Every structure is written in structure tokens, then in C-alpha cells.
Amino acid sequence: MSWTLGFVGCGVMAEVMIAGLLEEGLLAPNQILASNRRESRGAELRDAYGIRTTTDNREVVSASDVIVLSVKPQTLAGVLSEITDSVPSSALVLSIVAGASMRVLSQGLDHKRVARCMPNLPCRIREGMTVWAAPADTTDTDVDRIEQILGVMGGVIRVDDESHVDKATAVNGTGPAIVAQFVKAMLEGAAYIGESRSVAKETVLATLVGTAKMLQQSDGHVAELIDEVTSPGGTTSRALQVLKQGRFSAVLTESVDAAYQRTLELGAQLEDTLS
Ligand SMILES: NC(=O)c1ccc[n+]([C@@H]2O[C@H](COP(=O)([O-])OP(=O)(O)OC[C@H]3O[C@@H](n4cnc5c(N)ncnc54)[C@H](OP(=O)(O)O)[C@@H]3O)[C@@H](O)[C@H]2O)c1
Questions:
Q1: Which CATH number fits domain 175-264: 3.30.420.10, 1.20.140.10, 1.10.3730.10, 3.40.50.720?
Q2: Rounded to two decimals, what is the model's pTM?
Q3: CATH C-level class of 5-160
Q4: Does residue 274 register a pLDDT over 80?
């Protein structure tokens, strides 16, 4: 069945989804509507993808079967109050806005059919991961549509309990920065021992990707891989000892927890703004 998808806020993430859906032939350009505050941005997307664009959020919302809220968190309150009377009762609203709970969205829109997700940075190159949640009574059609929209950005995991979306905001959302910080530190280490920049970059990234693929293919615990490459008195053993002295694992755990606590704080602030 033909359906219409509307984006409210058409920045980086919305464009990734639009490009992916069209490229994979899941939707035709005339099935996609997008509103953006700046008309010049709408024109860019119209020219690039042949979709319909406007600066009127209500126009998009009232004509869509699925509405993706893809504005920044600080803009959300204004957008919700602007569109609340225009959301068709049969429409599904899918928010990609970090921190906005389904309760906040539902209340702000006076609308029950809402879903929420957390994509991550590699979604921009369609190699990301998105964790999403929706009420248990979400229809199969809606589930299919959500998975089509998010699936063009990479992997997709549905969770029953929305609290996992907040946890994914810390792990999945913050993860790329933590991993990039790790890569930066490895490159600094390589430079310290005199490795050339080009060899270091290539080997560090290949090591990261290769290790990740091995871990993905293995059913065993991550510790088993570490054990496999650690011989008594060897180089890895020395390196791991230094990481231990520097509280490497503890610091990473603390940093993920800090991101999680901040996610909860931002969610609570959003709730205060909207109540
Ligand atoms: N980028 C990521 O990697 C990532 C990852 C996970 C989650 N997210 C979430 O995804 C959401 C969108 O992120 P993004 O990176 O795509 O942001 P973005 O590039 O800044 O896109 C937001 C768009 O919304 C438009 N906009 C602002 N106010 C508006 C309004 N009142 N009505 C209609 N459009 C409006 C902006 O237009 P102007 O340019 O004219 O202001 C901009 O084009 C955020 O809530 C973020 O938390 C992003």
C-alpha cells in the first residue's frame, strides 16, 4: 500500500533517511514530504531528491501517514505545540530527538501512536545502529515502516522497554566519540614510538574493524579473544598491565555512566519544558 512519509526538520539525519529510502526503492520521491525552517534547505533537498518540501510543518504533518520528528532537542517543544492540532489520528509519529520520551511526545502532541529511537553517528554513512521502542500495541504495518525508515541507516534493534533507548543514547549514541577518542590515543601511541602517520592510521583502523568483525562472529566472551593473544611475559601482557594501572576499564565504565546520567538529566529537563 502506498503511504506518505513526512519529515519535520530536514537536516543531516533526515537527509540520510531520504537518500537511503529512495536509493533502495522503498519509497518514490512523491511519497516523501519534508518541512524545514529555512526554505533554502528545502530547495536543496527538492533539487537533489525530487521530494516535496515546504517551510510549513503543519502542511507536512497533516498529509503524512508516518511523521519523523528530526529537529534538535532544543527546538522540540515549539515544534510539538505548533503541530499538535495537525497530526492525523491515524498517523504514526517517530521521533529521533535525543532524550524525548514517548510520554513527553504523547503528551505534547495529545497523540498515542508514537515511537522513539536513537540512531548514532555512523548512520550518516549508513553503517550505523539504531535502537528503537514503540508501545506494545503498535501495528505490524507501523513496525514494518519504522524498520524500513531506520534500516536504511544501518542495523536496527527494537527494544520492549523504552529505558533501553536512554541506555543506547549513552552506549550507541556516545559510542562513536569514545571509540574515536580511543583511536586518537592509539595514533598518539604509534607516533610516540616513531610509527609513520599513514601506517599508523591504516593499521589502527584495520585493527579496530577486524577485531570488531571477529567479535561479531564469535559466540564466546570478549575476554576469550584477549586471552588468546596474551602470552605470559609477552608484549600484549605488558600493554594490558599498563592499561590496568591507568584504570582503563574503570574509566570507560565511568564515562558511559556519565553519558547515561546526562541523558536522564536532559530527558527530565525536556519533560519540565513541556509540562
Ligand atoms: N546527527 C547525529 O549523528 C544524530 C545521532 C543521533 C540522534 N540525532 C538526533 O537527530 C535529531 C536531528 O539531528 P541532525 O543532526 O539531523 O540535526 P540538524 O542537521 O541540525 O537538523 C535539524 C533540522 O531541523 C531544522 N529546524 C530547526 N528548527 C525547525 C523548526 N522549528 N521547524 C522545522 N525545521 C526546523 C533545521 O533547520 P535550520 O538549519 O534552518 O535551523 C535543520 O535543518 C536531533 O534531535 C539529534 O538529537 C542525531
A1: 1.10.3730.10
A2: 0.93
A3: alpha beta
A4: no
